[in-house]
Specification:
Number of strands: 10
Radius of gyration: 19 Å
Low-confidence stretches: none
CATH architecture of the largest domain: Alpha-Beta Complex
Number of domains: 2
Structural class: alpha/beta
Number of helices: 10
Oligomer: single chain
Distance between the termini: 33 Å
Bound molecules: ligand T3D
Order of helices and strands: EEHEEHEEHEEHHEHEHHHH
CATH superfamily of the largest domain: 2-enoyl-CoA Hydratase, Chain A, domain 1
Amino acid sequence: MSDAPVLTTRHGAVQLITLNRPASLNSFTAGMHARLLPALEAAAGDAAVRAVIITGTGRGFCAGQDLNDPEMAGAGAIDVGAVIERYYRPLATRVRTMPVPVIAAVNGVAAGAGANFALCCDFVLAARSASFIQAFSKIGLVPDCGGSWLLPRLVGRARALGLALSGDKLGAEEAQRIGLIWQCVDDAALQDTALALAQRLSTMPSKALAETRRVIDSAMVMDFGDALTQEADTQRELGRSHDFGEGVAAFLTKRPAVFKDR
Ligand code: T3D
Protein backbone atom coordinates (compact mmCIF):
# COMPACT_ATOMS: atom_id res chain seq x y z
CA MET A 1 0.00 0.00 0.00
CA SER A 2 1.09 3.60 -0.71
CA ASP A 3 2.59 5.61 2.14
CA ALA A 4 0.87 8.83 0.98
CA PRO A 5 -0.98 10.38 3.94
CA VAL A 6 -4.25 10.54 1.99
CA LEU A 7 -5.41 7.95 -0.54
CA THR A 8 -8.16 8.45 -3.09
CA THR A 9 -10.00 5.80 -5.08
CA ARG A 10 -13.12 5.96 -7.22
CA HIS A 11 -15.95 3.43 -7.06
CA GLY A 12 -18.31 4.49 -9.84
CA ALA A 13 -19.79 7.80 -8.72
CA VAL A 14 -18.40 7.41 -5.18
CA GLN A 15 -15.10 9.02 -4.16
CA LEU A 16 -13.36 7.19 -1.33
CA ILE A 17 -10.88 9.30 0.66
CA THR A 18 -8.72 7.37 3.11
CA LEU A 19 -6.58 8.90 5.86
CA ASN A 20 -3.37 6.93 5.79
CA ARG A 21 -0.99 7.49 8.70
CA PRO A 22 -1.88 4.38 10.66
CA ALA A 23 1.21 4.40 12.92
CA SER A 24 -0.10 7.57 14.59
CA LEU A 25 -3.78 6.72 14.23
CA ASN A 26 -4.13 8.95 11.15
CA SER A 27 -3.57 12.11 13.18
CA PHE A 28 -3.47 15.33 11.15
CA THR A 29 -0.13 16.77 10.03
CA ALA A 30 0.44 19.75 7.77
CA GLY A 31 1.34 17.24 5.07
CA MET A 32 -1.95 15.41 5.50
CA HIS A 33 -3.93 18.65 5.40
CA ALA A 34 -2.06 19.60 2.22
CA ARG A 35 -3.60 16.53 0.55
CA LEU A 36 -6.92 16.19 2.33
CA LEU A 37 -8.46 19.55 1.47
CA PRO A 38 -7.45 19.29 -2.21
CA ALA A 39 -8.92 15.78 -2.32
CA LEU A 40 -12.22 17.17 -1.06
CA GLU A 41 -12.00 20.12 -3.46
CA ALA A 42 -11.38 17.75 -6.36
CA ALA A 43 -14.42 15.66 -5.40
CA ALA A 44 -16.53 18.81 -5.08
CA GLY A 45 -15.44 20.02 -8.49
CA ASP A 46 -15.90 16.73 -10.34
CA ALA A 47 -19.41 16.37 -11.76
CA ALA A 48 -18.93 12.60 -11.95
CA VAL A 49 -18.64 12.35 -8.14
CA ARG A 50 -22.04 12.09 -6.46
CA ALA A 51 -21.07 10.88 -2.98
CA VAL A 52 -17.92 10.83 -0.83
CA ILE A 53 -16.75 8.41 1.86
CA ILE A 54 -14.00 9.32 4.32
CA THR A 55 -12.34 6.55 6.30
CA GLY A 56 -8.98 5.59 7.79
CA THR A 57 -6.44 2.81 7.53
CA GLY A 58 -5.42 0.69 10.50
CA ARG A 59 -7.03 0.71 13.92
CA GLY A 60 -7.81 4.43 14.06
CA PHE A 61 -10.04 6.78 12.10
CA CYS A 62 -8.17 9.94 13.14
CA ALA A 63 -6.61 10.96 16.49
CA GLY A 64 -6.95 14.68 15.77
CA GLN A 65 -4.00 17.00 15.56
CA ASP A 66 -0.61 15.21 15.41
CA LEU A 67 0.87 16.49 18.63
CA ASN A 68 4.36 15.71 17.31
CA ASP A 69 4.08 17.76 14.13
CA PRO A 70 6.53 20.66 14.57
CA GLU A 71 4.63 22.68 11.96
CA MET A 72 1.36 22.58 13.82
CA ALA A 73 1.56 21.50 17.43
CA GLY A 74 3.42 22.29 20.61
CA ALA A 75 2.87 24.70 23.44
CA GLY A 76 4.03 28.30 23.29
CA ALA A 77 5.86 28.59 19.99
CA ILE A 78 2.84 27.81 17.84
CA ASP A 79 -0.15 30.13 17.34
CA VAL A 80 -2.85 27.50 17.76
CA GLY A 81 -5.55 29.92 16.62
CA ALA A 82 -3.67 30.38 13.35
CA VAL A 83 -3.48 26.60 12.96
CA ILE A 84 -7.24 26.39 13.42
CA GLU A 85 -7.89 29.16 10.89
CA ARG A 86 -5.42 27.80 8.37
CA TYR A 87 -6.31 24.12 8.50
CA TYR A 88 -9.41 23.24 10.51
CA ARG A 89 -11.80 26.02 9.50
CA PRO A 90 -11.34 25.30 5.76
CA LEU A 91 -11.65 21.56 6.38
CA ALA A 92 -14.85 21.78 8.43
CA THR A 93 -16.34 24.36 6.06
CA ARG A 94 -15.52 22.28 3.00
CA VAL A 95 -17.17 19.15 4.39
CA ARG A 96 -20.27 21.05 5.52
CA THR A 97 -20.74 22.66 2.10
CA MET A 98 -19.93 19.79 -0.24
CA PRO A 99 -22.30 19.61 -3.23
CA VAL A 100 -22.76 15.89 -2.59
CA PRO A 101 -23.37 13.82 0.56
CA VAL A 102 -20.34 12.93 2.67
CA ILE A 103 -20.18 9.77 4.76
CA ALA A 104 -17.64 9.22 7.54
CA ALA A 105 -16.90 5.50 7.88
CA VAL A 106 -15.29 5.57 11.31
CA ASN A 107 -13.17 2.44 11.47
CA GLY A 108 -11.59 3.01 14.88
CA VAL A 109 -10.89 5.67 17.46
CA ALA A 110 -11.81 9.25 16.46
CA ALA A 111 -10.32 11.78 18.87
CA GLY A 112 -10.11 15.57 19.10
CA ALA A 113 -10.41 17.23 15.72
CA GLY A 114 -10.61 13.73 14.23
CA ALA A 115 -13.89 13.12 16.06
CA ASN A 116 -15.35 16.46 15.03
CA PHE A 117 -14.15 16.08 11.45
CA ALA A 118 -16.24 12.88 11.36
CA LEU A 119 -19.20 14.66 12.96
CA CYS A 120 -19.05 17.34 10.25
CA CYS A 121 -20.04 14.66 7.73
CA ASP A 122 -23.65 14.09 6.68
CA PHE A 123 -23.71 10.46 7.79
CA VAL A 124 -21.45 8.98 10.43
CA LEU A 125 -21.24 5.20 10.29
CA ALA A 126 -18.98 3.61 12.89
CA ALA A 127 -17.55 0.15 13.39
CA ARG A 128 -18.75 -1.41 16.65
CA SER A 129 -15.17 -1.24 17.99
CA ALA A 130 -14.80 2.45 17.13
CA SER A 131 -15.01 5.24 19.69
CA PHE A 132 -15.28 9.02 19.91
CA ILE A 133 -13.20 11.15 22.29
CA GLN A 134 -13.41 14.91 22.82
CA ALA A 135 -9.73 14.84 23.80
CA PHE A 136 -9.30 18.61 23.94
CA SER A 137 -9.94 19.07 27.67
CA LYS A 138 -7.06 16.71 28.46
CA ILE A 139 -4.55 19.01 26.74
CA GLY A 140 -5.99 22.35 27.80
CA LEU A 141 -8.03 23.23 24.70
CA VAL A 142 -11.70 23.51 23.75
CA PRO A 143 -13.53 21.48 21.08
CA ASP A 144 -12.64 22.65 17.57
CA CYS A 145 -13.21 21.60 13.96
CA GLY A 146 -16.85 22.59 14.51
CA GLY A 147 -17.31 20.57 17.71
CA SER A 148 -18.57 23.45 19.85
CA TRP A 149 -21.38 24.03 17.32
CA LEU A 150 -22.09 20.42 16.45
CA LEU A 151 -22.08 18.67 19.80
CA PRO A 152 -24.95 20.52 21.54
CA ARG A 153 -27.02 20.34 18.36
CA LEU A 154 -26.46 16.61 18.00
CA VAL A 155 -26.85 15.46 21.59
CA GLY A 156 -28.02 18.46 23.68
CA ARG A 157 -26.12 20.65 26.12
CA ALA A 158 -25.84 18.19 29.00
CA ARG A 159 -24.29 15.44 26.93
CA ALA A 160 -22.19 17.89 24.91
CA LEU A 161 -20.71 19.28 28.11
CA GLY A 162 -20.30 15.82 29.63
CA LEU A 163 -18.35 14.59 26.63
CA ALA A 164 -16.28 17.76 26.19
CA LEU A 165 -15.42 18.35 29.85
CA SER A 166 -14.63 14.75 30.74
CA GLY A 167 -12.82 13.80 27.54
CA ASP A 168 -14.18 10.30 28.16
CA LYS A 169 -14.28 7.70 25.43
CA LEU A 170 -17.73 7.07 23.96
CA GLY A 171 -18.24 3.72 22.26
CA ALA A 172 -19.91 3.49 18.87
CA GLU A 173 -23.06 1.75 20.17
CA GLU A 174 -23.60 4.43 22.79
CA ALA A 175 -22.81 7.13 20.20
CA GLN A 176 -25.62 5.78 18.06
CA ARG A 177 -27.97 5.44 21.04
CA ILE A 178 -27.61 9.11 22.03
CA GLY A 179 -27.87 10.37 18.44
CA LEU A 180 -24.27 11.48 18.00
CA ILE A 181 -23.92 9.28 14.91
CA TRP A 182 -26.21 7.70 12.35
CA GLN A 183 -25.34 4.01 12.65
CA CYS A 184 -23.05 1.53 14.39
CA VAL A 185 -22.32 -1.62 12.37
CA ASP A 186 -20.22 -4.73 12.81
CA ASP A 187 -16.56 -4.02 12.07
CA ALA A 188 -16.45 -6.37 9.09
CA ALA A 189 -19.54 -4.72 7.56
CA LEU A 190 -18.39 -1.09 7.82
CA GLN A 191 -16.85 -0.53 4.40
CA ASP A 192 -19.58 -2.40 2.50
CA THR A 193 -22.31 -0.60 4.43
CA ALA A 194 -20.72 2.77 3.72
CA LEU A 195 -20.28 1.96 0.04
CA ALA A 196 -23.85 0.73 -0.32
CA LEU A 197 -25.17 3.91 1.31
CA ALA A 198 -22.92 6.10 -0.85
CA GLN A 199 -24.00 4.30 -4.01
CA ARG A 200 -27.66 4.77 -3.09
CA LEU A 201 -27.10 8.48 -2.37
CA SER A 202 -25.20 8.84 -5.66
CA THR A 203 -28.38 8.01 -7.59
CA MET A 204 -30.41 10.64 -5.73
CA PRO A 205 -30.82 14.34 -6.64
CA SER A 206 -27.49 15.75 -5.37
CA LYS A 207 -28.52 19.39 -5.46
CA ALA A 208 -31.64 18.73 -3.42
CA LEU A 209 -29.60 16.71 -0.90
CA ALA A 210 -27.06 19.52 -0.48
CA GLU A 211 -29.89 22.03 -0.16
CA THR A 212 -31.54 19.81 2.44
CA ARG A 213 -28.39 19.97 4.55
CA ARG A 214 -28.24 23.75 4.12
CA VAL A 215 -31.85 24.45 5.09
CA ILE A 216 -31.70 22.17 8.13
CA ASP A 217 -28.48 23.77 9.38
CA SER A 218 -29.77 27.29 8.73
CA ALA A 219 -33.14 26.62 10.35
CA MET A 220 -31.42 25.86 13.65
CA VAL A 221 -30.78 29.56 14.14
CA MET A 222 -34.11 30.80 12.67
CA ASP A 223 -37.57 31.32 14.04
CA PHE A 224 -40.41 29.27 12.56
CA GLY A 225 -41.56 31.98 10.18
CA ASP A 226 -38.10 32.47 8.73
CA ALA A 227 -37.73 28.72 8.30
CA LEU A 228 -40.99 28.62 6.34
CA THR A 229 -39.71 31.45 4.15
CA GLN A 230 -36.46 29.61 3.57
CA GLU A 231 -38.41 26.49 2.56
CA ALA A 232 -40.49 28.45 0.05
CA ASP A 233 -37.43 30.18 -1.42
CA THR A 234 -35.53 26.92 -1.76
CA GLN A 235 -38.48 25.02 -3.26
CA ARG A 236 -38.96 27.88 -5.73
CA GLU A 237 -35.40 27.41 -6.95
CA LEU A 238 -35.45 23.61 -6.91
CA GLY A 239 -38.85 23.60 -8.54
CA ARG A 240 -37.26 25.05 -11.67
CA SER A 241 -34.50 22.43 -11.75
CA HIS A 242 -34.03 19.51 -14.10
CA ASP A 243 -34.09 17.08 -11.19
CA PHE A 244 -37.53 18.10 -9.96
CA GLY A 245 -38.98 17.68 -13.43
CA GLU A 246 -37.19 14.38 -13.83
CA GLY A 247 -38.30 13.10 -10.42
CA VAL A 248 -41.95 13.86 -11.11
CA ALA A 249 -41.83 12.48 -14.67
CA ALA A 250 -40.15 9.29 -13.46
CA PHE A 251 -42.79 8.84 -10.78
CA LEU A 252 -45.68 9.37 -13.18
CA THR A 253 -44.27 7.04 -15.84
CA LYS A 254 -43.19 4.44 -13.25
CA ARG A 255 -39.52 4.39 -14.29
CA PRO A 256 -36.30 5.05 -12.36
CA ALA A 257 -35.29 8.72 -12.29
CA VAL A 258 -31.96 9.84 -13.74
CA PHE A 259 -30.85 12.87 -11.76
CA LYS A 260 -28.04 15.12 -12.94
CA ASP A 261 -28.16 18.49 -11.13
CA ARG A 262 -25.38 19.20 -8.72
O1 T3D B 1 -2.03 22.99 16.96
C1 T3D B 1 -2.83 22.35 17.66
O2 T3D B 1 -2.50 21.47 18.41
C2 T3D B 1 -4.30 22.73 17.58
C3 T3D B 1 -5.16 21.66 17.06
C4 T3D B 1 -6.02 20.99 17.85
C5 T3D B 1 -6.92 19.96 17.31
C6 T3D B 1 -6.88 18.65 18.10
O3 T3D B 1 -7.20 17.63 17.52
S1 T3D B 1 -6.38 18.64 19.72
C7 T3D B 1 -6.52 16.91 20.17
C8 T3D B 1 -5.30 16.12 19.71
N1 T3D B 1 -5.48 14.70 19.93
C9 T3D B 1 -5.35 14.12 21.09
O4 T3D B 1 -5.10 14.74 22.11
C10 T3D B 1 -5.48 12.61 21.13
C11 T3D B 1 -4.14 11.99 21.51
N2 T3D B 1 -4.22 10.53 21.43
C12 T3D B 1 -4.78 9.80 22.41
O5 T3D B 1 -5.29 10.28 23.39
C13 T3D B 1 -4.71 8.32 22.22
O6 T3D B 1 -3.73 8.01 21.26
C14 T3D B 1 -6.05 7.71 21.74
C15 T3D B 1 -7.06 7.76 22.90
C16 T3D B 1 -6.62 8.41 20.53
C17 T3D B 1 -5.83 6.21 21.39
O7 T3D B 1 -5.19 5.57 22.45
P1 T3D B 1 -4.55 4.13 22.23
O8 T3D B 1 -4.04 3.65 23.56
O9 T3D B 1 -5.50 3.26 21.51
O10 T3D B 1 -3.31 4.35 21.22
P2 T3D B 1 -1.91 5.04 21.54
O11 T3D B 1 -0.94 3.98 21.96
O12 T3D B 1 -2.08 6.20 22.43
O13 T3D B 1 -1.53 5.60 20.08
C18 T3D B 1 -0.93 4.77 19.10
C19 T3D B 1 0.20 5.55 18.48
O14 T3D B 1 -0.35 6.73 17.87
C20 T3D B 1 1.19 6.06 19.52
O15 T3D B 1 2.45 6.10 18.91
P3 T3D B 1 3.61 5.05 19.35
O16 T3D B 1 3.79 5.17 20.82
O17 T3D B 1 3.07 3.71 18.94
O18 T3D B 1 4.81 5.48 18.54
C21 T3D B 1 0.72 7.46 19.79
O19 T3D B 1 1.73 8.31 20.27
C22 T3D B 1 0.27 7.88 18.40
N3 T3D B 1 -0.72 8.96 18.48
C23 T3D B 1 -2.00 8.87 18.83
N4 T3D B 1 -2.58 10.05 18.79
C24 T3D B 1 -1.63 10.92 18.39
C25 T3D B 1 -0.43 10.23 18.20
N5 T3D B 1 0.67 10.84 17.80
C26 T3D B 1 0.61 12.18 17.61
N6 T3D B 1 -0.51 12.91 17.79
C27 T3D B 1 -1.63 12.32 18.17
N7 T3D B 1 -2.76 13.05 18.31
